[in-house]
Amino acid sequence: MGMAERTPAAGRIREAEQARDELRAALKGVDITLPSLALDGVSLVGDFPRPLVDLGRCTPELARRLAEAVRKCVP
Questions:
Q1: With contact defined as beta carbons under 8 Å apart, do 13 and 51 qualify?
Q2: Angle at 12 between CA 25 and CA 49, to 5 degrees
Q3: Residue 5: is it exposed, middle or buried by C-beta count within 10 angstroms (0-12/13-18/19+)?
Q4: In the predicted model, what is the mean pLDDT of the chain?
């Protein structure tokens, strides 16, 4: 493991990547793909990055399908 991989910043970025991947897999499980799902590049820069997962853009149809999938999970 290199020096950069041991830094708290690298750990935060790795955690954000894992969260993005978990979300992508969960959405795939209900046949939803967010084409622009990624990490927000601006949030990754600086000495103390605060990574954000950018859900990106999607069509209105996909937004409605996503809303329906979320509603099914709420009692």
A1: yes
A2: 120
A3: exposed
A4: 88
Position of tokens 């990574």? 51
Q: How confident is the model at residue 5 (pLDDT cuts 50, 70, 90)?
A: low
The full 3-state SS of 4-70, as one line of letters, equals HHHCHHHHHHHHHHHHHHHHHHHHHHCCCCCCCCEECHHHHCCCCCCCCEECCCCCHHHHHHHHHHH
CA–CA distance, 56 with 33 (Å, rounded to integer) = 11
The identity of residue 66, as a single letter, is L
Cα separation of 14 and 34, whole Å? Answer: 20
